[in-house]
Amino acid sequence: MPSLDPPPHNFPRVLIAHAGWRFLGDGNNFSLSQMVGLIRASGSVSHQWSNVLRSRTSRYGSRTKTFIMPEKTCLYQKYLPDNLQVVSDRFATFLAQVGWAHYVFSDHVRQQTAEDLYHPGDSHTSAYGGYEASTEIVRAMGLDADAFRPTWSMRPVDSFDLYEPDEARPALSERVIANSPPLDVTTNGLNNRGCVTRIVNPHGAHHRLLVFGDSFANLYLCYGIALHVREVMFVHSVSFDYEMIERYQPDYIVGEIAERFLIEAPAEGASLAWIVQSKLVDDMLSPMEAAQFVASYEPFKELYGPAMIPVLTEVRRRFGEAITGS
Predict the structure, then answer these.
(1) Across 14-114, where does the E strand assignment appear?
(2) Contact 210, 253 (CB under 8 A)
(3) Looking only at Cα atoms, what is the longest distance across the chain?
(4) 266 with 236: CB under 8 angstroms?
(5) Residue 118: strand, helix, or coil
(6) CA distance 260 to 120
(7) Local structure of 125: helix, strand or coil
(8) Which regions in the chain score pLDDT beneath 70?
């Protein structure tokens, strides 16, 4: 994250707007300041991103695309306070205009017709919005998104990320898919960066997708994509792990990133082993995560590669008896 001293505006962590809608304020990523044009991607960051995206195309051709998930602020501008206006010439729109990335929901952003793609009290998509984004990604990759036709039902929603723990949260419901085929899901149990999840759909088309992304992909996008294809492998990292791509040999490679994260270019090529090791160094692994990581190691061993072996050894040494079956 670039140094901002002093910060450009004193936006709160969460902006409470019209009709009870809540948006990310500035927090760690200065999301709102970016969207209203108070912070712009620096020239060096823009140059780094252009190199990253062109390098992906050069390496993998039509097998890969990078998708930007728009900030909720951009989709629901009518709820923002009257003195705030999202600017149109954002870095995300530039990347889409020059063809280096695909901006998801661009028509909805332009026409302000988002409906229930996002929740009023969450910065992520609803289940319906996640599915709609996943079909847009599947089509953009040149795959058939019409073989599966969802049937929708309603369910209560009890989790929002734009509320404080002690706040009263409104009762809401959302659309969910009622006719999803049985999916075989395996995860290494790590939170956020370093998380790996494999989703297998025995009835999907014979394609394997490797998805590098953030929490948007982890929540709904990958599950939506898996409704159409045989296997989806998700890695919570916005940078491509080149060696992992060689080991996994996917048919398609998807990069996904939330718009607010574009303010910092990824360390392209960073290995998953390096990410997990850095979390160890920073004491960011809980005993529960470590236990799941060890327990799930065999199914992911070939994907991780030999660089993960010393990391596994260190996890076992550090957590000892807290790890079941170690």
Answers:
(1) 14-16, 22-24, 64-69, 102-103
(2) yes
(3) 57
(4) no
(5) strand
(6) 18
(7) strand
(8) 1-9, 324-326
- Residue type present at position 172: L
The alpha carbon of residue 160 and the mean position of all alpha carbons in its chain are separated, in whole angstroms, by 16
Please provide the DSSP assignment of 80-96 as one string: S-TT----S--HHHHHH
DSSP character string of 91-129:
HHHHHHHTTSSEETTHHHHHHT--TTSB-TT-SSBPHHH
| Helix H or strand E segment including 300 | helix 297-304
Please list, residue by residue across 290-308, b when 16 or more beta carbons sit within 10 angstroms of its beta carbon and e when fewer do. Answer: bbbbbebbeebeebbbeeb
Token look-up 């790890």 returns 323
Model confidence pLDDT, tens digit, residues 279-298: 999 999 999 999 999 999 99
3-class DSSP state for residue 139? Answer: helix
Give tens-digit pLDDT for 109-168: 999 999 999 999 999 999 999 999 999 999 999 999 999 999 999 999 877 899 988 898
Q: Which two tokens stand for residue 8?
A: 């450009």
For β-strands 64-69 and 102-103, DSSP reports them as parallel
The helix (H) or strand (E) run that includes residue 73 is helix 72-75
Q: Where are the alpha helices (DSSP H) in 150-270?
A: 215-216, 222-226, 242-248
Return d(Cα 155, Cα 163) in angstroms, integer. 20
> What pTM value is reported for the model?
0.94
How many angstroms separate the CA atoms of 156 and 162, rounded?
17
Output the CA–CA distances (angstroms, integers) from residue 64 to 104, 230, 252, 262, in the order listed: 15, 18, 6, 18
Q: What's the CA gap between 205 and 264, in Å, rounded?
A: 35
The whole-angstrom separation of Cα 105 and Cα 57 is 22
**Cα-Cα-Cα-Cα dihedral sign, residues 307, 254, 103, 135:** negative
What end-to-end distance do the CA atoms of the chain give, in Å? 37
**Residue in this structure with the two tokens 């062109």, named with its chain if needed:** 54
